[in-house]
Design a protein that fits this description.
12% helix; 3 helices
Length: 187
């Protein structure tokens, strides 16, 4: 049997076209432009970071964490605080070798005129470091080496500052010691 009038018409196409179409379809996905940040979590172990450090200036935002007692919570002139006759500060140390206790302070002339020469007793962790005397008013810097065996890294270190003659403010009768600008331990 013979077919008449029929011509077989065949147009060849490359075999890669279906594969390319499949790859294009698979590659089309909806990817968001932004991603939410991962959830922030605190580690389960380890101590909380302490605001207490080895040295503090009274204008430091963390200064109140260093005050145990006897230092005004009110910052004067953006730089210093009044102490009471007895003040106590706390410090945390990462090492104890070759440290000096350093303190910048002032005995105002107006208070000095009323109370005369003063002595400040400085103790570190209950041990007497020094008893410096001041024969005039003004700004001062005290600095003295502290024996390493007096200090500790595993707990807080306490410094007590006690003036022998407090000044009594005439306005409100407040008993004040001296002006504290900074204190702590330095190498």
């Amino acid at each position: 049997m013979r077919r008449i009038g029929y011509t077989r018409f065949f147009v060849p196409y490359p075999r890669w076209i279906p594969a390319a179409a499949l790859v294009l379809l698979v590659g089309c996905t909806n990817i968001p432009d932004t991603y939410a940040p991962p959830v922030q979590r605190r580690p389960m172990t380890g101590p909380e970071p302490s605001p207490v450090t080895h040295f503090v200036t009274m204008k430091d935002p963390q200064a109140e964490a260093h005050i145990v007692s006897g230092v005004s919570r009110h910052l004067e002139a953006g730089a210093w605080r009044w102490t009471e006759p007895r003040a106590e500060l706390v410090f945390r140390l990462s090492e104890v070798q070759h440290l000096r206790f350093v303190m910048e302070f002032a005995v105002p002339e107006m208070t000095f005129a009323q109370r005369g020469p003063v002595t400040i007793t400085i103790t570190v962790n209950g041990r007497l470091l020094d008893k410096p005397g001041y024969q005039r008013g003004g700004e001062f810097r005290f600095e003295k080496a502290v024996p390493a065996e007096w200090l500790r890294t595993d707990m807080h270190n306490y410094v007590t500052l006690e003036i022998d003659k407090p000044w009594v403010a005439p306005q409100d009768g407040a008993r004040l010691g001296f002006i504290l600008k900074s204190a702590g331990f330095l190498e």
